[in-house]
Structures are given as C-alpha cells and as structure tokens.
Design a protein that fits this description.
five-stranded mixed β-sheet, 7 helices, single chain, about 260 residues, alpha+beta, globular
C-alpha cells in the first residue's frame, strides 16, 4: 500500500518506478488519466540495475553517500575496511600536470579544473578491487535509468571545508557535478548566477561566523564582485543579507548584499 501511495504522490498519470534500497523492493506502476492504477512487470534492465544498486548500498556501509577529499585524493565511506578500504588504497596519485580547484568557488568558476577532479573520481572508483562499484556501472544498460535517490552521490570536499556534490551520469559514463550543490565552508550555498543570490526573489541570508576577515567571506565577496554584485559588510557583521531592491529614482531593480550583526 505504501508503494502505491508513493506512486500517486510522484505522478498524476503515466508510468513510474517506486523503490526502497533499504528493503530491496522495487515496483512499477501505471496510473491512467482516470486515476486507476495498475502494477506492471519491472523491466529486466531496471531490475538488474536495482539489484546492483542494493549490492553497492550494502558494500558501502548501507549508504549511497561517499566523501572524496580533493587535497589527499582519499575516500571516506560510511564503514571503513573491506571493499571501501581497497578502493582508497587503489586511488591514483595526484597528477601535478592537471590543476585542481582550491575550493568550491573555484570549482564552480573553473569547469576545466572540476573535470580533472571528475577524472580522479572515475579512476579511483574504477579500481578493480571495488567490485560493488564495477558491478553497478556495468549494470547500466540504458540511459533511461534516472531514478531520484537511486544513484550514488559523492561529496567532494576541498581543503577549506567547502563542498560540491556529484553523481554518476549514465549518459556520459562519468561523474558530473550536481547543479546548485556547491557550498562554502559554513554551508552557505554558492549561487551559479547573479539572480540566484536572492533565491526566487526572496532575501537570502549567508552566515560568516568569522566576520569580515574570514576566508569564507573573502571568497564570497570576490565571487560576488566577479558577478557584478556589491557587498556592504563591516567589522562586527556576521551575516550578509542579499535582496532585490527597487530604486524609484532610477526605476530599476538591483541586487544588494548588506551585512548585519
């Protein structure tokens, strides 16, 4: 019954696959325009992928999340040892000929450097000793398999504590950054474009506990400046509020970011 209810929440009508990695259950439903629901057989390709996904989930400490540290090229998994430890030991050494981003801000601004990080992810997880990962990748028979929550996610951690989340692309056969997933060391989102600094037109608060001299604020202010955004942040301020402000005399909207204590 829970699977059927989840299917109705997912779509109004059409076909949908509902699954639970923790229980190893997967069902496919079709909902007609008149709201009738029918359960259909799960496609073999989808079933093969799901079996491999559950196997990876168990091998990875009952989790689809992994963490990769750019500075050391090492992995952190939910449970240490076993297959996870073997994957870490097999990770390739840093290639000094390929520059890597120093933090998430640089990762967002330098696609070429982020591609170098993704290459390292591919190489390290392709280690022959990490059988569960190889089995999962080999189980992808079609690019249609795009289940939300049905893919491993790597949290890429930079030396300053900032992060970018990435997932494996079935289409490209490589890791790709998840849009709008970049965060600074304090968990503030890193917008991709100017209009996203005040998300959906609403004031957005960014916290900088270290104040005006903190590395996090300096990175933020430089990034904002590159996008043409003015910031006003003085000694004692610990938060920055970005909002769209209307200037009647100029008859225009402008994005402003002002500090507050």
């Amino acid at each position: 019954m829970e699977m059927q209810e989840e299917a109705r929440r997912a779509i109004d009508f059409g076909g949908v696959a509902i699954f639970s990695v923790s229980t190893g259950e997967i069902h496919k439903f079709v909902i007609t325009p008149n709201t009738k629901m029918y359960e259909m057989p799960v496609d073999q390709a989808l079933e093969d992928y799901f079996v491999a996904l559950v196997g990876f989930w168990h091998a990875n400490g009952r989790s689809l999340d992994m963490q990769y540290y750019v500075d050391s090229g090492s992995w952190s998994f939910e449970r240490q040892g076993g297959l996870a430890m073997q994957a870490r030991q097999a990770a390739p050494a840093h290639d000094p000929g390929k520059p890597l981003p120093a933090n998430a801000y640089e990762g967002v601004q330098s696609p070429g450097k982020m591609n170098n990080v993704m290459e390292r992810l591919d190489a390290s997880l392709a280690a022959k000793t990490y059988v569960a990962w190889i089995s999962l990748v080999n189980a992808v028979k079609t690019p249609i398999l795009t289940m939300d929550g049905g893919r491993p996610v790597t949290v890429i951690s930079f030396p300053d504590g900032s992060k970018i989340r990435a997932t494996y692309s079935n289409d490209l056969k490589t890791w790709v950054a998840i849009p709008e997933s970049a965060q600074d060391m304090h968990g503030n989102p890193i917008p991709l474009k100017k209009e996203d600094f005040a998300k959906d037109g609403q004031p957005t608060v960014y916290g900088f506990p270290g104040g005006i001299g903190s590395a996090a604020y300096m990175d933020f202010s430089r990034y904002a400046f590159d996008l043409g955004i003015r910031t006003s942040f003085t000694q004692g301020d610990i938060e920055l509020v970005c909002s769209n402000t209307y200037f009647a005399e100029h008859m225009r909207w402008e994005l402003l970011c002002s500090g507050r204590r």
